[in-house]
Each structure stands twice: as C-alpha cells, then as structure tokens.
Amino acid sequence: MKKKILIVDDMEVSLMMTENMLAEEYQTFCASSGMEAMEIYRKEQPDMVLSDLRMPGMTGYELQLALQEEFHETIPFMFMTADHDEETESQGFENGAMDFIRKPFSPDVLLKRVANIMQTVEQIATLKKSSSTDSLTGLLNKASVAVELTKVCQNSLGALMMIDLDSFKLVNDIYGHDMGDKVLISFADILRSAFRPDDFIGRMGGDEFVVFCKGIHEDAVIEYKTQFINERVAEAAKKLMGEEMNIPLGASIGCVFVPMSGNVFPELYKKADKALYSVKQNGRHGCSIFNDDEHVEESLTEVTGIDQVEMILGERNPDEGCIVFPFEAFRNVYRFLKRNRGAYSKQTCLIVFYLKRHKSGALQMSDAAEQFLTVISATFRKGDAVTQNGTSQFFALLTNADAYREVKKVTDRVRENWDHVPACTYFTFNYEWKVLDT
After folding, report:
1. C-alpha–C-alpha distance, residues 381 and 379, integer Å
2. What's this model's pTM, rounded to 2 decimal places?
3. Is 285 helix (H, G, I), strand (E, B) or coil?
4. Cβ-contact 411, 314 below 8 angstroms
5. How many CB atoms are closer than 10 A to CB 437?
6. Model confidence over 41-51: pLDDT tens digits?
7. Quick check: bond before 104 cis, omega within 30?
8. Euclidean distance between CA atoms 189 and 225, whole angstroms
C-alpha cells in the first residue's frame, strides 16, 4: 500500500507540479489552504505533510502547530519555500520540521528527501513499538499499559479485566521454560482472538495480563469471553503438551466496569484485582465482576429477592474439583458439617495431609506447597472442601463418603497425580484421617 502525502500550497501551478512529481510513488492529497488541509488530514490521516511555508490565512508553521495540538502527536512535516533567508529555515527546524526544501526543486531531489523522511518515520515507529511491547508476546508491556490505560479509563466506557493464567508455574516446572514461553505466546494469541483490534491487551509480567474492552458493560459478555478463553486454553494446552497433559491450565478474570466504578486507572486496577482474588478463592477458571457494595462490605442487606441472593451466593463459573477455602471459611464449613453429621446417610471424613522433604534440592517448601494444593484441589470432588494450614499442612473434608473405601480411593489418586509434578522429586506426603463423630 502506498504511503499517503498531504501537499499544501496556495499556488495552484506549484501544487499541481509537486503532485505530479510524487503521484507515481505515493498516494497524494492536495489542499490550497491551511483550513482545507486540516479537513483532509482529519479524514485521511496521511503519513506526512509537505506544505508551503508562506500562505495567506494560515502559514505552514501555524498549520503544523494546529495539527499537533489537535492530534497530540508529532506529525512529520517538510516545508517548501522560495525564501532564501537562513533564519526562516532555522525557525522551521525549531518548530519540529523534519526537512526543508527550496523552490524550485527537481523531482529527483524531492523524491529523495521524501523517501528519507518516510524511512526515518518507520525507524521511529519501530523503536516506539519495541519500547512499548512485550518482547515475547507482542502485547503492550507493563509500562505502556499504565500510560495507555490511564488515558483510556479517563475518557472511555468499557470493561477493565485482569487475567491470570492459572497453574502456569506447573508448565515451567514439568515441561521447562521453553514450553512455558510457547504457552504464553499461545495464550496471547487466544486473547487477541477473544477481543477486538481496538481493545487494549497487555502483559503485566509472568502469567498476568490486562485487557480493556471498549463499550462493554454487561456481565453476560464477560462470562461468555471467559468461557471462550478457557475452552481455547484447554485446546491449546493439549495441542502443545499432548493429550496426556493433566495440568489444570485455565484463565481467571477479575473485571471492573468503567466509569461505573470510577475512571482512575490505579484504583480500577485494584478493584479488578479484588474481583480476581474472588475467582482464585472460588475454584479458578472463572470470572468475577467487581461490585462496589459487594466488595466493600460482604453483606446481603441491600439484596431484594431470593433469586438475587442465590446469584450472589452461588459460584459464578463452577469447575471440576473442590473449592479451596481460606482457613477461617473452612473452619466454618467443618463446624457446620460436624453439627449436622447425623443428617446424612453417609459419612464425612476429615483428612490431614503433611507435606515433607525427602530429598535435598533447590525447590522451596512454599513452591512445593503451591503444587500440592493444585493437585489436591483438582483431585477431590466438587462437594468436598480443602484449605491450607501454614506452609506444609492441608486439610480436606471428604463429604458423603463410605469412609475407608472413599478415603483410600481419593488419597491414592492424590499420590498418583503428585507423582506427575516436579516437586515429587524432593517432597513427599503422608496423611491421617478420621470420620466426623457420629
């Protein structure tokens, strides 16, 4: 595609001659005044402007300043003039002109000067892109996300989303960092396919991403995109690592609507992070929409109607595996089940896992514990509950169970799944269990 040049000259003969010199190599647009040039620029967004310096009404200098003030960017300008005053040329460069050519000029000289400007513009664009994009995924990097989204959140309606790639660390641990890079690149492509070209997508680092989706303010759209992304992640993971891959890869999304919950990016980012934390505490691979009332105070005092109560209490995107509770929430579940232990036909068992090192190595207990929690949360059933106590202890409630047979079955599966993660080389576990008193 040819580059676009806007030619501005109040002298019709000069305008036509200049256009004839450039028309074969470039797509040209002509204006005989500064005001006409402004209108054409707004419509066509040319790659550079070639303007006569001295024109009635609006000079070339004034045209340059007016365009840059309106579009808030440096616009490539080259001035033409018959004036041989060196002070005029100096002022042109001080105003930010990229070149200066004196009339009359030959086609060869003009084409060479224009080509030099186009090359410089491309080099600058390449440098800007490399400094603002993540080298691995090609998405906006953390620094450029902050700059761009600060402006976007102030002036746009839409959805700001924090997106985590769940269980990504296990990919690096099991398959190596090269495979981890392939997964991140694939995930970036999935995000591009899930959102539109004019949405903002950035990588904050590691497995954390951020998206601003313009014009979106409906829960259903966010839920649909969450489902789409998770389906594509599952497909891509199997394709990259094989059908036997059992890492629970997926995406958790925390979302906040703009400007309903504000328009200051750092504050919105914190709110999206709170919503993301809710997903992480509720089984992962889902989404949560920030609600100012709901997240400031965990209360249902403003809720009217049992359907709305059920919607708030329920899981947004229930997934396979059990719910991982914070310790205090787990203790409440334990007390509830213990109090009502006689109301169920089958038993509820408490299982305590103890993670311990059996071989020296660089892997830290905290990293091994993260892997172990992922394993047991994926192994237990939807109706079960799990929590972590300290660094190396894990409590599980196995509900509606036939005691010994069910305990052995689930603990055998935990051991089998644990043997497939890297931490098993250095850490093992044992456990004890009991039936809640009848």
Report:
1. 7
2. 0.47
3. coil
4. no
5. 7
6. 999 999 999 99
7. yes
8. 14
